[in-house]
């Protein structure tokens, strides 16, 4: 029989309170719950012209649209980046999550590319953003491993675009090979993992390595089955193999534990905002 919400909240609070280490896994469901939704009114309000011209359905699938020109591609992507990376403030759900763990020895691994963990105050050297960052661009063919900040360029593209196109002079070119540039998010085999990416990966691996003899909590938030090999499956393995490690999984669609970890997992299929708020108290 499933325990009541209050029973599960109390158990999770106790585990978090007693934890020596907390590893946070943030998936797309976390940012969606925070308000960064990629469909519905937020999409139709901000992309009406693109929807009319290209028959787009949502921001996620629109990211794979085969634009005929770089001027069209960057008109879409600059707006996408602006409303998901630069315009949103630090959101309340992420703030509450930070308040929950800020005094603990924590680490964050996330597939989200919207920079929210950084905005609310999580230490940059305790974050591993595996899938990249909307705020960076790279050579589209990955000819070299340098990343470039795009904030000023993105804002100029947004300000100057007309009829779903940016001026040709704003199209970014690779400073090494002269080819096209791309957003530094993992969507093909050319994703650039720069020096900092590998340093963050090493810090993440080191943090996981010290869980063996610690009271640890894995706090998995909004992680489904889009890229389960990055967070979901590794968290299940850590829970299974590490004696003092427990998993707290918050996911309205995929909250159930695997059978082997049933006694070491607290599952929540309730509203993510509400659960984090109640855990914080």
Q: Hey, roughly how much beta strand do the residues contain?
A: 15-25%
The tally of helices reads: 12
Q: Helix share of residues? A: 40-55%
Order of helix and strand elements from N to C terminus: HEHHHHHHEHEEEHEHEHEEH
Average pLDDT value?
97
Computed Rg: 20 Å
Instruction: Tell me the span between the first and last alpha carbons.
Output: 26 Å
* Structural class by sheet pairing and helices: alpha/beta
Find the count of extended strands (DSSP E, 2+ residues).
Answer: 9
**What is the 3D shape?**
globular
Low-confidence stretches: none
Largest sheet: 6 strands, parallel
Strand order of the largest sheet: 3-2-1-7-8-9
Describe the structure in your own words:
There is one protein chain. The chain is α/β, with parallel strands linked by helices. It contains twelve helices and nine strands. It has helices spanning 5-18, 28-34, 41-46, 48-54, 59-62, 70-86, 92-101, 116-119, 151-160, 195-209, 232-241, 272-280, and strands at 21-26, 105-110, 127-129, 132-139, 148-149, 181-185, 216-221, 245-250, 265-268. The chain has a six-stranded parallel beta sheet with strand order 3-2-1-7-8-9, sandwiched between helices. Strand 2, helix 8 and strand 3 (127-129) form a beta-alpha-beta unit. Helix 1 packs across helix 12, helix 6 (70-86) packs across helix 9 (151-160) and helix 7 packs parallel to helix 12 (272-280). The longest helix has 17 residues, at 70-86. The radius of gyration is 20 Å and the shape is globular. The chain starts with a helix and ends with a helix.
């Amino acid at each position: 029989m499933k325990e009541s919400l209050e029973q599960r909240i109390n158990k999770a609070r106790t585990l978090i309170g007693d934890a020596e280490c907390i590893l946070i896994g943030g998936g797309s469901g976390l940012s969606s719950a925070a308000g960064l939704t990629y469909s519905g009114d937020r999409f139709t309000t901000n992309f009406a012209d693109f929807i009319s011209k290209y028959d787009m359905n949502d921001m996620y699938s629109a990211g794979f649209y085969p634009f005929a020109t770089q001027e069209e591609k960057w008109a879409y992507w600059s707006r996408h980046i602006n409303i998901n990376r630069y315009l949103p403030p630090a959101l309340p759900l992420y703030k509450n999550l930070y308040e929950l763990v800020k005094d603990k020895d924590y680490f964050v691994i996330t597939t989200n590319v919207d920079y929210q963990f950084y905005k609310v105050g999580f230490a940059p050297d305790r974050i591993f953003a595996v899938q990249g960052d909307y705020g960076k661009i790279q050579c589209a063919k990955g000819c070299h491993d340098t990343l470039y900040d795009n904030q000023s360029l993105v804002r100029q593209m947004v300000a100057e675009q007309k009829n779903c196109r940016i001026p040709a002079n704003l199209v970014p070119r690779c400073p090494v090979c002269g080819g096209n540039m791309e957003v530094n998010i993992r969507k093909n085999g050319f994703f650039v993992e720069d020096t900092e990416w590998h340093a963050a990966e090493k810090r993440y691996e080191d943090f996981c390595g010290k869980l063996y003899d610690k009271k640890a909590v894995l706090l998995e938030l909004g992680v489904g089955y889009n890229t389960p090999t990055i967070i979901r499956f590794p968290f299940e393995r850590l829970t299974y193999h590490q004696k003092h490690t427990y998993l707290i999984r918050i996911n309205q669609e995929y909250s159930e534990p695997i059978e082997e970890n049933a006694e070491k997992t607290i599952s929540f299929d309730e509203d993510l905002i509400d659960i984090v708020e109640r855990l914080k108290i």
